[in-house]
């Protein structure tokens, strides 16, 4: 498999030049779509390590896991649409290395792809508990197959399935919410004193934590996992276990579990780039226009880019659906323009999480040390808007069940407004 070769990789992409997008993800698909929308007519290949067509991940922990959607409804595009866009699919093959100078990608079957430009969108993979990689009943949720496997195990046990969720972050909390609705007895284990405190701060993290107890889920904080012992065997010491075994906790106690779901964060998928010469540091390091090197751009969960805000910049890697979608299109535009003329990727980050019938929404980039002020509703009622201030500036806004009120602050975040301007809007 080869593409059109030649030309300066830092220059604008010729209309008939070839592009290989590595990662059949949201970011990868949006990049391919953006190339075609801009009139690019050259060869366009989309490489993915799964056999599935590109699909959406947010519904996996909610609608798909709950059985409200069939898995195919999560697909972002069908084959007909991709054929119409003249996108060549290379599915079921993992990229193993990248020769940056030649823009040559090696795949796990020994084949190679060469292209004039490469866009890297290989995302991230879930962290796992040590020693549980192949343990039956211990599941991470990242792929559509993970969602299907988790739902199958829950249904196989039936009503009263004893589920232990390790990690009270957004994914763990969404799984807990969905499976409590399915009739599971859910226990959530969180190593921190307050869930989500490193992201939202202790005050708002505490409000999110209350959602669990209000819906019959047992949240245990300051609790780490020592091991997950499989069912049977001498190591159980006669203690009760479930279909997945027994979860040993840091205080020496244990919990029987029919299913264990691990949600303790993700690792950027950059291992295959270790010999490429690209800069890897908590992801693939890119400039403000998303170039990792001449002719190579990146997008999505693995991209760590130079993010400019309020005349300052910082290197960030953001694992949001909205960022992946916008970044994929922006990286494609950068390849088309060439490195010298490419625009900076600028955005106002946004994410949401649906838990227990409640939608948590965040605009901007909150930090736990920010000044936080509730400006609408109340923490007690569980319906409110909170503003995050940092160095006198509005850093973020968060809402629980207040979508209309929240969006009023987006223009202020885009403009780099002060916290006092945001508070004045709240009072108006």
Task: Give the total of beta strands.
Answer: 27
Q: What can be said about the biggest beta sheet?
A: 6 strands, mixed
Q: Considering DSSP H and I runs of 4 or more, what fraction of the residues is helical? A: 10-25%
The fourth-level CATH homologous superfamily of the largest domain is: FAD/NAD(P)-binding domain
CATH architecture of the largest domain: 3-Layer(bba) Sandwich
CATH fold-level topology of the largest domain: FAD/NAD(P)-binding domain
Structure classification? alpha/beta
Strand order of the largest sheet: 3-2-1-7-20-19
Strand content: 25-35%
CATH class of the largest domain: Alpha Beta
Number of helices: 11
Name the average pLDDT. 95
* Whole-number tally of structural domains: 3
Low-pLDDT sequence parts: none
**What is the global morphology?**
globular
Distance between the termini: 61 Å
Q: What Rg do the Cα atoms give?
A: 23 Å
Could you please describe the fold and organization of this structure?
With 428 residues, this protein is α/β, with parallel strands linked by helices. It has 3 domains: 19-125 and 267-337, FAD/NAD(P)-binding domain; 128-262, 3-Layer(bba) Sandwich (FAD/NAD(P)-binding domain); 357-427, Enolase-like, domain 1 (2-Layer Sandwich), CATH 3.30.390.30. The chain contains 11 helices and 27 strands. It has helices spanning 26-37, 63-66, 79-84, 144-157, 170-181, 197-200, 202-214, 321-337, 403-407, 410-415, 419-427; strands at 19-22, 44-48, 88-91, 95-99, 104-107, 112-114, 117-120, 124-126, 138-140, 162-166, 185-189, 218-220, 225-229, 245-249, 254-257, 259-262, 266-268, 284-285, 291-293, 296-298, 303-309, 312-316, 350-355, 358-364, 371-378, 383-390, 393-400. The strands form 7 sheets. It has a 6-stranded mixed β-sheet with strand order 3-2-1-7-20-19, with helices on one face. A 5-stranded parallel β-sheet has the order 9-16-10-11-12.
């Amino acid at each position: 498999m080869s593409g059109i070769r030649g030309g300066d990789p830092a220059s604008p992409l010729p209309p008939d030049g070839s592009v290989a997008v590595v990662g059949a993800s949201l970011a990868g698909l949006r990049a391919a779509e953006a190339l075609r929308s801009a009139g690019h007519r050259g060869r366009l290949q989309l490489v993915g390590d799964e056999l599935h067509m590109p699909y959406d991940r947010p519904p996996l922990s909610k609608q798909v896991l709950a059985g409200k959607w069939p898995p195919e409804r999560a697909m972002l595009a069908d084959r007909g649409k991709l054929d119409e866009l003249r996108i060549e699919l290379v599915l079921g093959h993992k990229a193993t290395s990248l020769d940056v100078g030649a823009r040559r990608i090696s795949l796990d079957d020994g084949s190679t792809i060469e292209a004039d430009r490469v866009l890297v969108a290989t995302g991230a993979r879930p962290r796992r508990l040590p020693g549980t990689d192949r343990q039956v009943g211990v599941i991470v949720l990242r792929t559509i197959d993970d969602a299907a496997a988790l739902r199958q195990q829950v249904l196989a046990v039936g009503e009263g399935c004893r589920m232990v969720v390790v990690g009270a972050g957004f994914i763990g909390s969404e799984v807990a919410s969905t499976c409590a609705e399915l009739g599971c007895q859910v226990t959530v284990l969180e190593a921190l004193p307050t869930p989500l405190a490193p992201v939202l701060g202790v005050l708002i993290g505490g409000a999110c934590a209350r959602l669990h107890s209000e819906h019959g889920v047992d949240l245990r904080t300051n609790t780490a996992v020592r091991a997950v012992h499989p069912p049977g065997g001498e190591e159980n010491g006669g203690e009760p276990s479930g279909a997945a075994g027994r979860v040993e906790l840091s205080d020496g106690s244990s919990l029987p579990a029919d299913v264990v779901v691990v949600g303790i964060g993700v690792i950027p998928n950059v291992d295959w780039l270790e010999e490429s010469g690209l800069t890897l540091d908590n992801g693939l390091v890119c400039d403000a226009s998303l170039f990792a090197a001449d002719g190579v751009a990146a997008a999505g969960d693995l991209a760590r880019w130079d993010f400019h805000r309020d005349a300052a910049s910082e290197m960030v890697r953001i694992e949001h659906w909205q960022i992946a979608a916008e970044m994929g299109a922006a990286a494609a535009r950068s390849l088309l323009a060439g490195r010298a003329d490419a625009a900076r990727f600028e955005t106002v980050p946004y994410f949401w999480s649906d838990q227990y019938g409640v939608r948590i929404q965040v605009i901007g980039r909150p930090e736990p040390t920010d000044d936080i002020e509730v400006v609408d509703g109340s923490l007690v009622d569980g319906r409110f808007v909170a503003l995050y201030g940092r160095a006198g500036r509005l850093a973020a806004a968060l809402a629980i069940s207040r979508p209309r009120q929240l969006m009023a602050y987006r223009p202020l975040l885009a403009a780099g407004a002060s916290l006092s301007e945001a508070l004045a809007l709240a009072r108006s």
